[in-house]
Amino acid sequence: MAERGHSLESIKASIEARKPDFDAFIDPQKQYADAVIEVLPTQLIPDDNEGKVLRVRLIMKEGVKYFSPVYLFDEGSTISWIPCGRKLTCSYPGIKFNYEPDTYFDHEVSVLEMDGQFDRLDELIYVESHLSNLSSKFYGEVTQQMLKHADFPGSNNGTGLFQTIVGLKIRDLYEQLIANKATAPAEAAKA
Fold first, then answer.
1. What is the pLDDT at residue 189?
2. Domain range annotation of the chain
3. Phi, psi for 187 (deg, rounded to 5)
4. N or C, which end of the chain has less CB nearby within 10 Å?
């Protein structure tokens, strides 16, 4: 709302107008997706009506060939982390991360959640260093991509972070598929 200058009422009206199409075409597809990004109201600010702060969930299906879900600290554990302090600048209401295994449409999933927003994108490297299976090609690639697109809507919250991570996952998936396709004829010739 704040970034694009819309009122809460106009956004709710727009969502309601699109809801029949969402219910008919988008929502049913989530059960087949390997990764889903959900954008939700913050839980950091009680009774928030401004919508400036978002809670964003990255839901990643387990057991998918060529796709390893991202995790925070310890794969498969339940983690709640408030990284504000000496290494990450956080103004009110702060930032909170959660990671946990869960079930989504009867599939085992890993869920990474970010509630809040970054004050300084260059400090994202601290958060990035605690995430594993990012499919990045080098240390700091997520932070580099976020800084490169710092003026994009959502760049300071979980929407931008998780879209960047999913982009890296898609690149990695594509490269694995291409590599597998290239080795298949060679293996067939050996047989």
1. 65
2. 30-180
3. -70, -35
4. C
